[in-house]
């Protein structure tokens, strides 16, 4: 992926990145607030050898002291000195517990040792540091005194005594929060990139072109107003969704300038992807543009378009196909210039009716009567109705719902249409994230899924 692809992913998922960062920061802050404060008191020890007037001897003594310093740092953190300190201060802890809270470090190329003691009580930390240092000075005197008597070869002086610290060294709240912010940001970005990698839904033009080998005709943003009313009032509305349908109307004119499609099937791979809402508003947009348009409710199983347009749905296409009524008897007008042919009574054999010669001749008659016939068809994968209608019409527009339609579903839907020699005019992505919110369209089918057809050779 290129840099702009990463930026696009972060722009789309900035909320999850921000939430992850905030959660980690809060966790770091909670850890800091619930951690028992730890204080550190420090002393500094000076190590020397027996005094000598000779310069060479004094230099050798200094080197000897530096070598001793490294050994002394080990003794300072040992359990023997810890037990002596506990006995001296009457502490209620074990030697191992005290030794675990003592650290000693030798300053490079010096005879100085810095001793640090950690404790939850600042005053006790200072008392332990001073008591341990005093005990160590006595301990070294015992170790360095020859068994035959005489002066010790080395001695330790407490050069700087400890004072009660004014503030704790732990928890380091500022550092923890800063690290939490960095870690949270990295986790958020990593999670966003991982989710994008694992996401197998249709979201952009490149996916449509790669999977369906067809173009993206339009993108419809999510519009929460469609929850209340699926039909857009184009005469007095200039919302982003209305403008997107106007753009879609314009794009239809460039699909094939020599043989422009007039009878167009609107379908999708699965239910709840916005096909009926798209069919309704595309028909209304075409009617607004001065065209003579018919919306044909080709879903003879679960028709819903008539409900959105407030027209009678009890008579319609199924009556015409059963030779019970003529087209003039069942075509209805709406408040706009759009005309509607409802599905009519739900028949027991929708696929047989739609695949009949009567259905083909009916679509041909409607093509002659209107500038555009927009056919709201069922989804392709659950049933074969849409493929049948698309083979009789001038072509089909396949709907893909942004972030929900699976890539394999979209690819199979296009393959199924082409397998019956239907013309795939292009794809439309609905409910794009430029208008976030809950879905405004949805219904379910309970049919046996049609088997996948072999991919049609082009």
Mean pLDDT: 87
Q: Give the fraction of residues assigned to helices.
A: 40-55%
Report the biggest beta sheet as strand number plus sense, adding barrel if it closes: 8 strands, mixed
Distance between the termini: 30 Å
CATH third-level topology of the largest domain: Rossmann fold
Identify the CATH architecture of the largest domain.
3-Layer(aba) Sandwich
Q: Would you count the extended β strands for me?
A: 12
What is the C-alpha radius of gyration, as a whole number of Å? 41 Å
Which geometry do the CA atoms define? rod-shaped
CATH superfamily of the largest domain: P-loop containing nucleotide triphosphate hydrolases
Low-confidence stretches: 435-458
* Total tally of structural domains: 3
- Number of discrete helical segments: 17
Quickly name the level 1 CATH class of the largest domain. Alpha Beta
Structural overview:
It is a single chain. The protein is of the alpha/beta class and 458 residues long. The chain folds into three domains: 3-35 and 172-194, no CATH class; 39-160, Alpha-Beta Plaits (2-Layer Sandwich), CATH 3.30.70; 202-432, P-loop containing nucleotide triphosphate hydrolases (Rossmann fold). Helices cover 45% and strands 16% of the residues. It is built from 17 helices and twelve strands. The strands form two sheets. An eight-stranded mixed β-sheet has the order 5-12-11-6-10-7-9-8, sandwiched between helices. It has a four-stranded antiparallel β-sheet with strand order 2-3-1-4. Helix 2 (14-34) runs antiparallel to helix 7 (173-198) and helix 4 (79-89) crosses helix 6 (122-144).
